[in-house]
Amino acid sequence: MSLAANDSPVVIVGAGLAGLTVALHLADRLPVIVIAKRELNEAATAWAQGGIVGVLGKDDSIDSHVRDTQDAGAGLVDEAAARFIAERSADAVAWLVEQGVPFTMDEDGPLGLHLTREGGHAVRRIAHAADATGKAIHDQLLEAARAHPNIELRERWMAVDLISSRHVQRDESPRCYGVYVLDIDNSRVEALQARAVVMSTGGAGKVYRYTTNPDTSTGDGIAMAWRAGCRVANMEFMQFHPTCLYHPQERSFLITEALRGEGGYLKLPDGTRFMAAHDERLELAPRDVVARAIDFEMKKHGLDHVWLDATHLGEAFLKEHFPTIHARCLALGIDIARQMIPVVPAVHFTCGGVVTDLLGRTDMPGLYAVGETAYTGLHGANRLASNSLLECVVLGKTCADDIYSNTPKTTVQVPAWDESLVEDADEQVVIAHNWDELRLLMWNYVGIVRTTKRLERAQHRIKLLRQETEEYYVNFRVNRDLLELRNLLDCADLIVRSALQRHESRGLHFSRDYPYTLPVSFPTVMVAKRGLRKK
Q1: Among 21, 142, 146, 315, which residue has the least CB neighbours within 10 Å?
Q2: Is 29 in the active site?
Q3: How many Å apart are CA 216 and CA 42, to the nearest integer?
Q4: pTM for this prediction
Q5: pLDDT number for residue 532
């Protein structure tokens, strides 16, 4: 890719739906580099089964979608953000159709699309590609990015940290000038000068022992923006998906919410349905309600899992609408047309993140964040199903437009990465041990149901782990495992500190010490001690 002589590229960290949307909207106007720390197809987008919201049907409206988003978000949704994104949902779906995404079709449906329904939605408004929507979208956009002459894709490159004003020794309000990136295969760090940097690294699900997220979800963008001085909000709201397959050979396979949307029942081992005891919406209650109900029933009855029963839907229906789930379960010896599916809750989505506006702008000029990395106010205290892909597409476009219109060319020379005072690590056991300890203590102490004592214990251990890991970072050459652990520890600290500040139970945050919900509440906004001050 040839770059303009006096212009730097836009560097996009993360190759999921958010990052690829920004890249494709920008590439006809500016040079773009997209980096992925593992294989390009390993983004969390490809794991999304359900679909993307589109306010398309005659029985639907913007107001209805906004209400459903607010109801799921338990009083913390920013209505302006929800309305802004809902108003653009039809255009977002239409753009994906134009890109060639193979959605499931229905000649009688709006835009010729089949729409399904998921928990928390008043009507059918989810456009989908059978039960593998994320993969269908990601494959198509990745193909388009590969074909574009102005997009450079770097596989197995990982961001280390942002390059800001303090690195270039400029006496000014902090600004982002680029990013240090690790070439994983060659173990070298390169300084990438950038017109703008977009963080689209996904969430921080791997901070927990059990998650539906891929290995890439280590909170990299959130941690880097926080270290650079940006505000981070609502990190206590980690969404647990109610139904992850419980099987020793598959610890992160998601059973889509759409299966309950089409009529699946949650049951105890004796076949009794239990959701009526928890919510009048039964299996279609929002995810936080269903996850807590399952957790309650498991603890009450001493169970390792509960059951999801879809046998009454029929084999033909299940094969047509849920082919991926049917095939994966069958390969594991579970015929979902004749047997109930063992399921447990697992961490699924990070509702908080780096504070941005609806153009993806963070507190630091030149630095943007889009998708699960960002906090826009859309998700509040609990994300409504299938709003995540929608947010990526809508704000990916507005972000690209703002970068093109409002980021100046830069000729500032960024300094090279300094390794003069470090050496190769003699062993990796410290990283492996700290990684395992962190994920286990977060699962045990900062899970679906929390107490102040558990949170304080977690905070104490995280502090010690951060000290050990930071000492390792300062003295040895970096590698992917070390960088991911460092980022996860920062995110874990933010989750616990945010949870300790919320003296109520709301949405995804449930505390035994504060089981009530306050009549009025606000987002939990964390401000870095160093702040965005002049250097």
Answers
A1: 146
A2: no
A3: 7
A4: 0.89
A5: 45
